[in-house]
Write a structure and sequence with these properties.
The complex is a heterodimer of chains A (251) and B (640). With 251 residues, chain A is of the alpha+beta class. Helices cover 35% and strands 12% of the residues of chain A. Chain A has 8 helices and 7 strands, in the order ββαβββββααααααα. With 640 residues, chain B is of the alpha+beta class. Chain B contains 17 helices and 19 strands. Chain B has helices at residues 17-24, 30-33, 45-57, 95-105, 112-132, 164-182, 247-254, 319-323, 333-345, 362-368, 370-388, 443-463, 476-495, 501-515, 522-542, 554-578, 602-605; strands at 37-41, 60-64, 82-83, 157-158, 185-188, 191-199, 202-210, 216-220, 223-226, 259-260, 265-271, 294-298, 316-317, 357-360, 397-406, 409-410, 423-425, 607-612, 621-626. The chains are: A alpha+beta (251), B alpha+beta (640). At the A-B interface, helix 1, helix 2 and helix 3 of A face helix 3, helix 5, helix 6, helix 11 and helix 12 of B.
Chain lengths: 251, 640
């Protein structure tokens, strides 16, 4: 297969970037999208041009380092899945493909297609954990957890932290990301003691990092590689409202 | 020079060694802990759990990872599960049995005392992870669920769908985040360790390069903990993440740390077969699939291109069930992998190129229904479909072995300290617990055991003698190491040749896969040694690395790693050549039973082979640590 590519090139955060035209030829349909970029980079190297910087690591959809918007869709057309799980058989021969980094105010660009998502780490650092000291844990089966709750917690916990939710959102909101973590932990009995402070602090930092608000467009859910349901955002809102009330009444 | 290797295994009965060792190890009092700075390189299950736990104890920790966030370390990709001797299923499991299975699974090439301790702390790991909020699979009554895994006859594996590594790592990562907020851990993402600094014989720091800016930094500490994972990417194609590399451990080796059993690599039996030359990595299909999938190939070569549905039961060879009736499809990894290679070598392999075998779920779907199979393995079936375009509910999966894990690693004693005082090595980066073959669901167990429950006891024992001995980061040893790192980077950029990194790395990988992969022989290994040297020379003469030093430069970061792989590959082959026996993942064709099983030489080779660097271009020196088996009886490993 042959493709025309328009790829975002930008030297660093300060420089101006632009879309540059490239072409790749004789690509097997079993090539992954990132392997196609590898091939392009090999070609560029052969011509003495600097390869396109892009992040990838596990290449099996779990590490969450992928950060590409393809033809305007975060992670490209094959949902659910990260870019590394996208194969060229999903495109038409001869198609023009536009490749950009996730564009979110809170994810500053580093170079070409590489972005800085440390804002997501800082949201988790604000309270996205259970304080469990190694050595203090009770016997694991001493607190049975209904299968339904455990399964639901797992659905939320499956988030890979890629930030596609924010990239797809017209408001650049990280509500789905934050909601997934708050829900995962509040659904489990072990997460209950810190439930109130967790919701308050994570939302506070989320706002401080400059992420936008949720206006129920559900673009986040549509592109989420881990299929996190937007209903967790409703849960986050309930958790937050509950936390505010509890804090307000001094309980 | 290093004298005899002392593993410092505590005296006393096997089941009391760890307890008595803990009782007698030196401690650091709470108000002194903040005076110690610990460097932890790597943020996966081992490094993340160690950094979080040491931070919690009150030490000042600096944690480094090459990814943009500690949550992305490659532990995240582990699918199947984590073992523990809880015996929740009442099926006869115990600490002893987990220990015994692991020793046997490792083909009697690991230390009894280490493995027993691993089995002992396995139960605490599950408690810890549940308390952190890891959403393990549960039964309807709310209790934890288990599944069985290769090499075991009990159900002792805990899991979170097919994403167990992800969930355990997020547990670690969240604990780490808590310590970052508490100010005990300082995180350095996108930072790569490029050298170890030794001062007065003790590991006291590292030299790093920021992958973001290219800036080189010196970090001094009271101890250095390497948790930098395995070196499977030396084969180019493996199930490892693209960034996984040998650099940290190899540079430590060049600074005097011994590298143990480098030829012990695990070839995982259930991966998606290679589809073409462009391929950048191989994808694992969790071994848990072998609980319900049946492995087969056609009995006759002529049938190999027929659609599987048209091959009748009578014409199928369920070769694992045939050869290993008591373990069947759950035979240990090395054995299952070699069996797949054999049937493909016989010309009975399926799929493009004939390098594949079927993993068939038809029986399980008939027995349990498609919904149950979807619930158990749904995400794996989705991954398979994305990569191959095939629906495995309808047609059998095709699988083939791929490089997955490396049992070898830096040599450590019972305290997880290398022969260089102050240099600790944990998780996949060390060699200690899996012998010549690792059992499924044991890597997660080992990483977390080391980080949560072993290092926090053994590190203070060292630190107690190191009060006030942390050198300043501008001392001559640091300046020398920094200057060496800079020289090497300049050298890489100055080659300015014609060949791409990938093409050299791919050539190295194919060579190793061929000569030092699933089976090896002396002649092939000698050929490989010559070719590796030639390839390395070509690399330094003709590689093309573009861009600048002090910049975000992905070519340069990879060039350094490939350069190290090109040296390390030689060490692997030397080790494989020296080990004149077959054991676990190391199958020397010269040493096999009449049935084609691995033939160990317990009399002469029941030892750890630990290699000491002697200088570039010099042969490394071999140190042997004899393995003493006081509790288990050495037998030929049988899964029949």
């Amino acid at each position: 297969m042959n493709f025309k590519l328009k790829i975002w090139r930008q030297k660093d955060r300060q420089s101006r970037g632009k879309l540059i035209d490239y072409e790749v030829r004789d690509i097997s349909s079993n090539t992954s999208f990132l392997e196609m970029l590898d091939i392009l980079n090999e070609n560029l190297l052969g011509r003495g041009e600097e390869p396109i910087a892009f992040d990838s690591d596990c290449r099996e959809g779990i590490c969450g380092i992928c950060s590409l918007t393809i033809n305007g869709e975060a992670h490209g057309p094959d949902h659910p899945g990260a870019v590394c799980e996208l194969y060229m058989r999903k495109f038409r021969d001869g198609e023009t493909i536009v490749v950009e980094p996730f564009r979110v105010r809170s994810f500053p660009l580093v170079k070409d297609l590489v972005i800085d998502r440390s804002a997501l780490d800082r949201i988790v650092q604000a309270g996205g954990f259970i304080s469990a000291r190694a050595g203090s844990a009770p016997e694991a089966n001493s607190t049975p957890i209904p299968k339904h709750d455990a399964d639901l917690a797992m659905e939320a916990a499956a988030c890979i932290g890629c930030g596609a939710c924010a990239a797809a959102c017209p408001n650049g909101s990280a509500m789905l990301f934050t909601a997934a973590k708050v829900s995962h932990l509040s659904l489990l009995p072990q997460g209950r003691p810190e439930r109130v402070t967790r919701a308050l602090k994570m939302v506070q930092i989320m706002d401080a990092e400059g992420f936008g608000n949720c206006t129920n467009t559900y673009e986040c859910e549509a592109v989420c590689p881990a299929e996190i349901s937007a209903s967790f955002i409703a849960k986050l809102n309930r958790e937050y409202a509950h936390a505010i009330l509890q804090r307000g009444t001094g309980e | 020079m290093i004298g005899t290797l002392d593993a410092k295994i505590p005296h006393g009965p096997l089941d009391q060694k760890w307890r008595s060792h803990r009782d007698h190890s030196r401690l650091v009092s709470p108000n002194n802990r903040r005076k110690f700075e610990i460097i932890v390189v790597g943020s996966g299950l081992a490094g993340g759990s160690a950094a979080a736990t040491l931070g919690e104890l009150g030490y000042r920790v600096k944690c480094f990872c090459f990814q943009d966030s500690p949550r992305r370390a490659h532990s995240i990709a582990a699918q199947g599960g984590i073992n523990a001797a809880k015996n929740y299923q009442n099926d006869g499991d115990s600490v002893y049995r987990l220990f015994h299975d692991t020793i046997k699974g490792g083909d009697f090439r690991s230390r009894e005392a280490n493995v027993y301790r691993l089995a002992e702390v396995s139960n605490q790991i599950i408690d810890q992870c549940v308390e952190q909020g890891v959403p393990f699979a549960r039964e309807y009554g709310g209790l934890l669920a288990n599944r069985s895994f290769g090499g075991a006859q009990v159900s002792r594996t805990f899991y979170a769908r097919g994403q167990t590594g992800q969930q355990l790592l997020l547990g670690c990562y969240q604990a780490l985040c808590r310590q970052i907020t508490a100010g005990t851990v300082q995180m350095f993402p996108q930072t790569e360790m490029l050298d170890l600094v030794i001062v007065d014989g003790n590991a006291k720091g590292i030299i790093t390069r920021s992958l973001r800016s290219g800036k080189i930094d010196k970090h001094a500490g009271d101890a250095v903990v390497l948790a930098t994972g395995g070196y499977g990417n030396v084969f180019y194609l493996s199930t490892n993440a693209r960034g996984c590399n040998v650099t940290a451990t190899y540079r430590a080796y060049k600074k005097g740390a011994l590298f143990a059993n480098p030829s012990f690599t695990q070839i995982h039996p259930t991966c998606i077969p290679v589809s073409g030359e462009h391929q950048s990595k191989l994808t694992l299909m969790s071994e848990s699939l072998r609980n319900d999938g049946r492995v087969w190939v056609p009995k006759r070569k002529e049938d190999r291109e027929k659609p599987p549905g048209e091959i009748s039961e009578a014409d199928r060879d369920y070769y694992l069930e045939r050869k290993y009736p008591s373990y069947g499809n759950l035979a240990a990894r090395d054995i299952s992998s070699r069996a797949a290679k054999e049937v493909c070598d016989e010309g009975r392999g399926v799929g493009p190129g004939g390098r594949g075998v079927y993993l068939d779920f038809a029986d399980a779907i008939k027995r349990l229904g498609e919904d149950t199979i979807r619930e158990r393995y749904g995400n794996l079936f989705e991954v398979y479909e994305k990569i191959t375009g095939e629906n495995a509910y309808k047609v059998p999966m095709r699988i083939y072995p791929a490089v997955h894990y490396t049992m070898g690693g830096l040599w450590v004693d019972y305290n997880l300290m290398s022969n260089v005082p102050g240099l600790f090595v944990i998780g996949e980066a060390n060699f200690s617990d899996h012998g010549a073959n690792r059992l499924g669901a044991s890597a997660l167990m080992q990483g977390l055991a080391d980080g949560y429950f072993i290092l926090p006891y053994t590190l203070p024992n060292y630190l107690a003698s190191q009060m006030g001995k942390r050198p300043p980061a501008d001392s001559p040893e640091f300046q020398q190491a920094e200057s060496d790192v800079r020289t090497r980077i300049r050298k890489l950029l100055d080659v300015d040749g014609k060949r791409s990194l990938d093409s050299i790395h791919r050539e190295l990988g194919l060579l190793l896969w061929d000569k030092c992969g699933m089976s090896r022989h002396a002649k092939g290994l000698r050929e490989a040694l010559v070719k590796i040297r030639e390839l390395r020379e070509e690399f330094w003469r003709n590689v093309r690395v573009l861009g600048k030093d002090e910049d975000f430069n992905q070519s340069l970061e990879r060039a350094g790693r490939v350069a190290d792989f090109l040296e390390f590959a030689e060490l692997m082959c030397i080790d494989a050549l020296e080990r004149n026996e077959s054991c676990g993942g190391h199958f020397r064709e010269e040493h096999q039973t009449p049935e084609g099983e691995a033939l160990r030489d317990d009399e002469n080779q029941a030892a750890v082979f630990a290699w000491e660097f002697q200088g570039d271009g010099e042969s490394p020196t071999l140190h042997r640590e004899p393995l003493h088996f006081e509790t288990v009886h050495l037998t030929q490993r049988s899964y029949k």
